Amino acid sequence: MGGVLTGFAIIGSVIALGYVVSRTGILGEHARFVLSRIVFFVLSPCLLFVVLAEAPVKTLFSSLLLVSAIVGVASFLLYGSIAFGIWRRPLPEGAIGVASAGWVNANNIGLPIAVFVIGEPTYVAPVIMMQLIVFTPILLTILDISTNGRTSVGRVLTQPLRNPIIIGSALGAILSATGIELPDPVMEPFRLVGAAAVPVVLIAFGMSLHGQRALAPGAERKDVVVASVIKLAVMPVLAWVVGRFVFGLDGQQLFAVVVMAALPTAQNVFNYAQRYDRGEIIARDAVLVTTIGAVPVLIVIALLLN
Asked: What value does the mean pLDDT of the chain take?
């Protein structure tokens, strides 16, 4: 239990630092733009390359991967049916909302929670791989095409090859799958640069909260509420049902898949919204609401399953 609270206390303090930085204005008016670009193009690719390269292949391709994929897709479809079928949201905003409803914070919160609560950090690796090698190319392709206003087969097929996050993740997964271990002098620069990704993302998120009010009246409020309910309530229940009755998981494995599903919306979604300048309010508020709401949810899960 203390691990859940410790992990969120650490994350919350860094977000608060970002808020203070923005409030004082010490980084200038273009700081948020610069930070989001350096995270997207430099820091995150290095971090994800290292995480996936150093994960055991048997952990990457396990039942946790299948459960997480099924639960994630189900959550995407549930939100998408509401956003596109009922509300008729534009494609970029709807896509960000879909991601907010089912994209878990496996990096910034998942890693410390896996260490402090589950006791095994490798449980988070399959979720990271699935989201970044499968879900990310799809989301970024949709955002790239819908915001640029033009579509071509070549652009769709080559989009993953032009995205540094996908490239870094794919290279890391290849190293893990093939069992190739690069020498420390080669890996250490990636570890050093990648280590800056999590705090910089959290600082950028904290900066975005300055001058803003979560769940402010407007068209986006109901998007945030629905995405948050799916993320915090529907996903963990689905993970328990699928894990327990479809894959026959129990004990620590069942606990792990439910905890992973209960993680809040990933800051990556907010970073992508910033990058394409669409759906930023939805992503920001969903991240904030689910990050706060995940604390009691994870405590309940720990009491029931651990």
From this structure: 85
65 close to 130: Cβ distance less than 8 angstroms: yes
Nearest alpha-carbon partner for 231 in 273, 285, 305, 302: 285
* The predicted structure's pLDDT at residue 3: 61
**pLDDT score at 159:** 63
Angle between helices 197-209 and 280-305 (to 10 degrees): 120
- For residue range 180-189, list pLDDT tens digits in order: 999 999 999 9
Nearest-5° Cα angle at 57, 190 to 52: 25
Domain ranges of the chain: 2-305
Within a 10 A sphere around the Cβ of 80, how many other Cβ atoms?
17
Q: Which residues contact 198 (CB under 8 A, 6 or more apart)?
A: 47, 107, 108
The DSSP annotation for 104-147 comes to B-IIIIIHHHIIIIIS-GGGGHHHHHHIIIIIHHHHHHHHHHHH
Tokens of 147: 């915001």
Which of the residue ranges 10-19, 201-210, 246-255 has the most confident prediction, judged by mean pLDDT? Answer: 246-255
| Cα torsion angle, 193, 199, 205, 206, sign | negative
**What is the pTM assigned to this prediction?**
0.78
Environment class of residue 183 by beta-carbon count within 10 Å: exposed (0-12), middle (13-18) or buried (19+)? exposed
Tokens of residue 246, six digits: 């479809």
DSSP string, 173-216: HHHHHHT----HHHHHHHHHHHTTHHHHHHHHHHHHHTT--TT-
Provide the pLDDT confidence category of residue 81 given band limits of 50, 70 and 90: very high
24: enclosing H helix or E strand: helix 2-24
Domain 2-305 has CATH 3.30.300.20: no
| Cβ 182 vs Cβ 49: under 8 Å | no
Q: What is the DSSP string of 49-64?
A: HHHHHTS-HHHHSSHH
Q: What count of residues does the chain have?
A: 306
pLDDT in tens, 29-77: 888 888 878 988 899 889 888 888 887 777 777 888 899 999 999 999 9
